[in-house]
Amino acid sequence: MSAQAITKARWFPGxxxxxxxIAAVLLIELLIRVGLINRFIVxxxxxxxxxxxxxxxxxxxxSRFVLTAAEAFSASIxxxxxxxxxxxxxxxxxxxxxxxxxxxxALAAAPLVxxxxxxxxxFGRNATTIVAMGFTAxxxxxxxxxxxxxxxxxxxxINVGRSFNLTPSQQFWKILFxxxxxxxxxxMRLGLIFALINxxxxxxxxxxxxxxxxxxxxxxxxxxxxxxxxxxxVILISICVFFLTERLExxxxxxx
Amino acid sequence: MxxxxxxxRFLQPVTALRIAIIVTVLASWEALAASGLLYRDVVPSLVxxxxxxxxxxxxxxxxxxxxxxxxxxxxxxPAIYWHLxxxxxxxxxxxxxxxxxxxxxxxxLGSSRLLRRAYEPMLYYLGPCPKIIFFPVMxxxxxxxxxxxxxxxxxxxxxxxALNVAGGMREIDQVLIRVxxxxxxxxxxxxxxxxxxxxxxxxxxxxxIGLGVCLIGTLLxxxxxxxxxxxxxxMQAYNLFNMPLMYALLIxxxxxxIGANALIGRLGGLDDIKxx
Lengths: 256, 276
Description:
Distance between the termini of chain A: 39 Å
CATH topology of chain B: MetI-like fold
Helix content of chain B: over 70%
Shape of chain A: globular
Structural class of chain B: mainly alpha
CATH class of chain B: Mainly Alpha
Oligomer: heterodimer
Strand content of chain A: under 5%
CATH class of the largest domain in chain A: Mainly Alpha
CATH superfamily of the largest domain in chain A: MetI-like
Strand order of the largest sheet of chain B: 1-2
Largest interface: A-B, 51 and 49 residues
Number of domains of chain A: 2
Distance between the termini of chain B: 35 Å
Largest sheet of chain B: 2 strands, antiparallel
Structural class of chain A: mainly alpha
């Protein structure tokens, strides 16, 4: 097989990406061992790998993961219920939509996570603050996407509903909502990702809850290998959630 | 025949509804503050917040030594401006580093199909991770001073800029690229004369998203561990339970964030694209 044929093979980019990552890890290991990188700042990658089982067992990663997942799930439920309801409300009342759509869009772009100290005062240093923060961050995108989905329903579908003399309720549940569902799901995915980012971030910042708190605790104990292992674990979880929701979204998206 | 005059702007239904919503929210807030249903000061009166905002922005409470035309002068300024300067410096430096890194990575990924398929999934999946979890690592690498906050800002804004630039590179009209090649332009000329001008809007869009996340990353890092910056002031207000001051600081932060976002959009001509 010639070099040109190898670079054109389907598997080559994946192998190159993974191989580069492994090569970078090995290079860091080497640089630390020869003393070019201070091992009190960057731990040996081999130590990080060895720290994984310790962190998983001794730091109760599973129960922490369940706690973070429960917070994310609670926030997602709230985000979905209030976000979809908000989108439907804005769709039904045109004047309200024209008056407030730009405000909702501004809210979606605003750095809302900065109000977490305010939530700590209102709710205390507990899971309620974390869930409330996840909800605050995720609700605006779901509202906007629900509105976009409903407003984007094809005219012909609405006319079919009218020709069957559907009541407003039937028109919504049989025509508008099913047509908007793929876009609503895009919003729900965005809302879940925003909520998850904020939940883990606030857990870390207020030292309370699941995986975010674990990173903070290990860092405060100056357990370098453990800290890096915990960060890697959170990154893996984020990637898995992002990947799964993306697949689900593709599955739901209608064929163009 | 005279045409009927349009109703004044404030009497138009949309504007009237907006005013009604704002008045209702403010009145509800004031009523909640006066009712005592929540803990005292959790919902302070609007007057208290207004006073806190006014004194935050106008009352000089921080002595400062400055070198003015070779003369050492002592002045007193409102402390918020010093902290805003620190935060602005951290965000600006983080933006410059993150944007340059993102630009280089984006151009590299966008110009090569192999590099894109090998490395773009990594950026794509790492992008949405909560960046604040890297803060302990940044403290170890860059210390507890502004360096770690700058690094947080840079990491935060790197991903959206890189992904937008890579996407923008793929959207460039192939004719433009062939024109550059036919003129035998070297890599630097291709980047400065073809790629960057053709990718102005994706780059500005990436910078706009990058600014938002850079601001969040920097300010969250300040709230976690710092002794200066607006994030530090917010945590100080929290620790002293000075709620009017905390609300005033949040108002200042949101005004700056939304203003900066709008400014970048306008400078980059994004509004013009939307109007077309």
